[in-house]
């Protein structure tokens, strides 16, 4: 198996000596190509910090992060921007669609920047749209779409460039249960069909149960991990709930 992401002894400290927060405290793990990994942990455990240092939004205090063959902790300036644009896909909780562009234009943007021909872009968008069931909203502006539709358009935008790594922070956080389920099924499908490698932060055991592996973090450290293997989603869900209660959280907060 090809390793896409390698995190080695990463520490991220905030503050100064008298007021130090160890948001990430010597965390190490690796993700293979084609994995769908969920990251869970209580509020304040370091999930967003972890995603931010991987997505190069934030810098590590120490340690190494490799994406593909690239060490990203030393990348700067134009090379960092290019790397982000070409290798990573982001899905944020608040969608981050551009309000003045239609769904189609939002999705097309990254491909236009790459200089791809309009005809090729169109074929890619039509195919992605049918997989995510957003064909009907392609000509709509963000304010004309439902939350679930916006989230699926944002997902299409992140996935259309076939990034090496897709990073999602609480992608279902703003969705109702039906839209959440639909988006997660899309993720699962794209993960299988396109071999998209997905790293998803989530509070909720239901979302995590769609992943092939769940990493649990506690106080900035890796606490446990579960692999789905051949388990049904329901069985996996129950195992996740067990670890969540071990973590000391209230399981009811997380489902
Ligand atoms: N910019 C910052 N300055 C100082 N401390 C920070 C900063 N960002 C995060 N922290 C601290 O680092 C720790 C981890 O925060 P992080 O946002 O990664 O948690 P999280 O697991 O994403 O939580 P949540 O589930 O509430 O989103 C927390 O104790 C938080 O207070
Ligand atoms: Mg967070």
SSE layout:
Elements: E1 3-14, E2 21-32, E3 36-40, H1 47-54, E4 62-67, E5 70-71, H2 77-87, E6 88-91, H3 103-113, H4 118-132, H5 147-159, E7 165-169, H6 177-193, E8 198-201, H7 205-208, E9 213-218, E10 221-227, H8 233-246, H9 251-254
Helix pairs in contact: 3-4, 3-5, 4-5
Structural descriptors:
single chain, 255 residues, 6-stranded mixed β-sheet, 4-stranded antiparallel β-sheet, 10 strands, globular, disordered C terminus, binds adenosine-5'-triphosphate, binds magnesium ion
Explain this structure to me?
With 255 residues, this protein is an alpha/beta fold. Helix content is 38%, strand content 25%. It contains 9 helices and 10 strands. It has helices spanning 47-54, 77-87, 103-113, 118-132, 147-159, 177-193, 205-208, 233-246, 251-254, and strands spanning 3-14, 21-32, 36-40, 62-67, 70-71, 88-91, 165-169, 198-201, 213-218, 221-227. The strands form 2 sheets. Strands 6-7-8-3-9-10 form a 6-stranded mixed sheet, with helices on both faces. A hairpin with a 2-residue loop joins strand 4 and strand 5 (70-71). Helix 3 crosses helix 4, helix 3 (103-113) runs parallel beside helix 5 and helix 4 crosses helix 5. Mean pLDDT is 89; it is low at 251-255. Adenosine-5'-triphosphate is lined by residues 14-15, 21, 23, 41, 43-49, 203.
Give the C-alpha Rg: 18 Å
Provide the structure class. alpha/beta
N-to-C SSE string, H for helix and E for strand? EEEHEEHEHHHEHEHEEHH
Give the neighbour order of strands across the main sheet: 6-7-8-3-9-10
Question: Mean pLDDT score, rounded?
Answer: 89
Bound molecules: adenosine-5'-triphosphate, magnesium ion
Strand fraction:
15-25%
- Helix % is 25-40%
First-last Cα distance: 33 Å
- State the helix count: 9
Please summarize the sheet with the most strands. 6 strands, mixed
How many distinct beta strands? 10
Low-confidence stretches: 251-255
Shape: globular
């Amino acid at each position: 198996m090809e390793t896409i992401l390698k995190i080695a002894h990463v520490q991220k400290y905030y503050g100064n000596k008298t007021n130090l927060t160890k948001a990430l405290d010597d965390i190490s793990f690796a993700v293979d190509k084609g994995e769908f990994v969920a990251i869970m942990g209580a509020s304040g455990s370091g999930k967003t910090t972890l995603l931010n240092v991987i997505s190069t939004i934030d810098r590590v205090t120490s340690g190494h992060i490799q994406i593909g063959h690239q060490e990203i902790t030393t990348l700067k300036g134009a090379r960092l921007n290019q790397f982000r644009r070409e290798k990573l896909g982001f899905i944020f909780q608040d969608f981050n669609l551009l309000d003045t562009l239609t769904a189609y234009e939002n999705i097309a943007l990254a491909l236009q920047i790459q200089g791809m021909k309009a005809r090729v872009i169109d074929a890619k968008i039509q195919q992605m749209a049918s997989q995510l069931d957003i064909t009907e909203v392609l000509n709509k502006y963000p304010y004309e779409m439902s939350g679930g539709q916006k989230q699926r358009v944002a997902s299409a935008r992140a996935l259309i460039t076939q990034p090496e790594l897709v990073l999602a922070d609480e992608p279902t956080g703003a969705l109702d249960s039906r839209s959440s389920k639909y988006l997660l099924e899309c993720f699962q499908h794209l993960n299988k069909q396109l071999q998209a490698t997905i790293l998803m932060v989530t509070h909720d055991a239901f979302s995590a149960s769609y992943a092939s592996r769940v990493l649990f973090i506690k106080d900035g450290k890796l606490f446990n991990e579960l692999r789905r293997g051949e388990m049904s989603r329901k069985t996996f869900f129950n195992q996740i709930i067990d670890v969540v209660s071990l973590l000391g959280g209230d399981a009811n907060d997380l489902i």
